[in-house]
Every structure is written in structure tokens, then in C-alpha cells.
Amino acid sequence: MNSRGFAILLVFAVAASIALGLIVERFTPPGMQRTFWFGVGLAAIIFPAGWYAERRGWVHGVWRAGGDRKPAASDLTAGSDAAPTTRQSSGEPK
Where would I find the H helices in 28-77? Predict the structure, then answer.
């Protein structure tokens, strides 16, 4: 996530939380029902915002449900498309 994506999503999440809190507080009784509807409403607002930020390139990454790590370069076979034989360097001499 770059700094632009973080800042925009942070401001968006805070503003959505405040606005949704005021709305939910007016129409639901205190307790778990209020908490439930706040969570549902916030998810309905933040998920599309995060999806949009990902489409714009502000947020990137892959979530793996099983917690499997990415395969290391040594685990892949040499010469395959997934493991290029050359790597770009930062330009610093070794």
C-alpha cells in the first residue's frame, strides 16, 4: 500500500465511521443490534472503497487463506517463467 492509498482510505474510513455512527445511533436500539448494523454498514462502505483503491493501484497484495508462504526462488525450477534467471539490481556495485 502506498502512502496515497493509506491516507485516502484512512480519511474515508474515519468519515464513514462518524457518519454511519450518527445514522445507526438514531435508528437502532443500544446493544448488539446497533453494533451489528454498524459493522454491516461500515463493511458495505469500506469494501467497495478498498476495491476501488486496489483497482487504482494504491493498494496491492495477495491474501492467502491458508497462510501459505510464497515459494522461494530456490524452491522453483530454474528457467521457468516464475523464476527468471536474471534479477534487476539497485545499481550498487557488489
Answer: 32-56
Q: In angstroms, rounded to a whole number, what is the distance separating the alpha carbons of residues 41 and 18?
A: 12
Give SS3 for 76: coil
Is 78 in a helix, a strand, or coil?
coil
Residue-wise over 47-71: b if at least 16 C-beta within 10 A, else e? eeebeebeeeebbeeeeeeeeeeee
pLDDT tens-digit profile of 61-85? 776 677 666 666 665 555 555 555 5
Rounded Cα distance, 45 and 40, in Å: 9
Cell reading at 89 = 539490481
